[in-house]
Every structure is written in C-alpha cells, then in structure tokens.
C-alpha cells in the first residue's frame, strides 16, 4: 500500500484566551497527494462550561462548523481556493476562541481513516 504525507492540526477552543486553557474540539487534515482536506469537529459543552461557565455554546459550535464548511469543495465559501491554500489559511495563527494548534505531519494510506484515528485519539475522551 502506498503511503503519502499528510499534515494535520488540532482545532482547539480557548474560551478565555488570557488564561490559555483549552479543549480539543476537532482535527483538520490535509493530504496533498490524495487531494484530501477535511475537518471533523465535536464540541463537549460540559468541558467548555468547566473552563468558562458563561461560554456561548452556539457561537462556538458555529465557529467550529466554519472549519468543516471551509473544507467543502462544492458549497463552502473557499470552494474555489486550492486545498493547500485553504489548509494554510485555516491553520494560520489567530487569537480567537476557536483556533488551531501547531501543524504536524505523518504518513497514511487512507486520509479519511487517519482523520478518524486522530479524532478519536486527540478529541474524544
């Protein structure tokens, strides 16, 4: 089986940026050789409320959904942009409640399966 290089970043929720506390809420994975870009997100409201009881859960869900939408090749707002450009834009550093961590790399024969594996390992408890 051929394995290709992929890059990924964890999507994090940092409800109070000044405190630096965060929860992992998703994974963004890009594999150029396979023309694959996908985000998978899941918010645990109880964990978010533990860090910030006043957090706007709906707003955070909407911000997380924007990552998934940006990966959509058909109807997403960035559909006309190349996948690599979208990945770089999505992983650019920002000081907002929803942000990505550092970009890491690996090898995979199936980017979709790798995304699921990383999501289970890094996001789900």
Rounded radius of gyration (Å):
14 Å
Number of helices: 4
What is the residue-mean pLDDT, rounded to a whole number? 94
How many strands? 5
Q: In terms of per-residue confidence, which ranges show pLDDT below 50 for 5 or more consecutive residues?
A: none
- N→C terminal distance: 31 Å
Alpha-beta content class: alpha+beta
How many domains in all? 1
| Binned strand content | 25-35%
Helix content: 25-40%
Order of helices and strands: EEEHHHEEH
Largest sheet: 5 strands, antiparallel
Characterise the protein shown here:
This protein is of the alpha+beta class and about 120 residues long. It is built from four helices and five strands. It has helices at about 45-50, 55-70, 85-90, 110-120; strands at about 5-15, 25-30, 35-40, 100, 105-110. Strands 1, 2, 3, 4 and 5 form a five-stranded antiparallel beta sheet that branches. A hairpin with a 4-residue loop joins strand 2 and strand 3.
Please describe the topology of this protein.
Elements: E1 4-13, E2 23-31, E3 36-41, H1 45-51, H2 57-71, H3 83-91, E4 98-100, E5 104-108, H4 111-122
Overview features:
125 residues, alpha+beta, 4 helices, 5 strands
């Amino acid at each position: 089986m051929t394995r290709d290089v992929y890059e990924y970043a964890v999507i994090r929720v940092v409800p109070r940026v000044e405190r630096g506390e965060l929860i992992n809420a998703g994974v963004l994975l890009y594999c150029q050789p396979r023309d694959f870009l996908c985000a998978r997100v899941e918010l645990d409201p109880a964990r978010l409320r533990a860090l910030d009881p006043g957090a706007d859960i709906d707003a955070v869900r909407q911000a997380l959904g924007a990552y998934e939408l940006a990966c959509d090749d058909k109807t997403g707002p960035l559909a006309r942009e190349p996948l690599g450009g979208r990945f770089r834009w999505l992983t650019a550093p920002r000081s907002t409640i929803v942000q990505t961590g550092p970009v890491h790399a690996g090898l995979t024969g199936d980017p979709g399966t790798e995304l699921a594996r990383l999501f289970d390992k890094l996001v789900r408890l």
